[in-house]
Design a protein that fits this description.
Length: 91
């Protein structure tokens, strides 16, 4: 069973309108690498040229923020749910 990546509405234009994508990987980086083969524009939008996640973007694995784990090296398992959440800023 693969992992499920939940795509926020603002990024769904980069996934042909899909709100979730099934993929595989052993880490968040592995998931991103897998997504790059099918949804290059999405991965380009959420990552830096160096491969890290862009600032003001939050990623959660089963509700746990990867910034407090191992960031893109955070392990994932079959059946996990990965949420991509753009930060909201304003005043």
């Amino acid at each position: 069973m693969p992992v499920t990546v939940l795509i926020p509405t603002v990024l769904q234009k980069l996934t042909d309108g899909r709100d979730e994508i099934q993929t595989s990987g052993q880490t968040i980086q592995g998931v991103l690498d897998g997504l790059r083969t099918t949804h290059t524009a999405l991965v380009d939008r959420i990552t830096t040229p160096e491969g890290g996640l862009k600032p003001f973007l939050n990623v959660f694995v089963n509700g746990d923020d990867i910034r407090f784990a191992d960031d893109v090296r955070t392990s994932v398992n079959d059946g996990d749910e990965i949420s991509i959440v753009p930060s909201i800023a304003g005043g």
